[in-house]
Amino acid sequence: MEDLCIKIPFSEEVKNLPEVRPSRGDAIFNTTDKILEWKIPTKEIHGSGNFSLRCTVRGHSTGNDDDDENDSEGGVPSSGLYDFDAPYQRGIAAKAEHAAGQIESQAGGNGAETEERSNLLKMAQNKILMPSSVMVSFSIKGWLASGLKVESINLDPRKSKGLGEGVKPYKGVKYVTVSRNGVELRC
């Protein structure tokens, strides 16, 4: 396998990925396009088969600067604790409330306890920030994903332009599987 590139699109609610830690290769988050691009060089692919990418996802601020007391950048507390009620999380509160309500109704709840509702709200807020698909690009020499094989090729030298009388085509086929724009996997 060569040229392995994994692209992970995030929702517009994501502000930044402050900590991106790939086990191999390089990962860069484009804040404009909201895409994390992880490239793994060919020499690093041919080791053990385990790859991992860990990152911290930070959502957008609502723009309420009054609520940002004792917070550092983007509403994340300076103590390093993750606060689900931080200002950047409140910007998506309406979507999360709606999602939590849907989860609650699917579970058959009719007025769950506040702690359970809080947990559902946290799950919904996290779900909004998480990606729902991944694009994987790669190339593999000597393999065909479709399984099709070429048994023979007949060339007519009279109709083939550029093929002289003394030119004999090489009798062999080299297979290559290339996924340039990615194979999309949905979560």
Automatic annotation (TrEMBL):
Q: Which residues form the MHD domain?
A: 2-180
Domain of life, per UniProt, equals Eukaryota
Q: Name one Pfam family in it.
A: Adap_comp_sub
Which InterPro entries did the record assign?
AP2_Mu_C_sf, MHD
> Where are the annotated segments for Disordered?
57-80, 96-116
Name listed for the protein in its UniProt record: Adaptor complexes medium subunit family protein
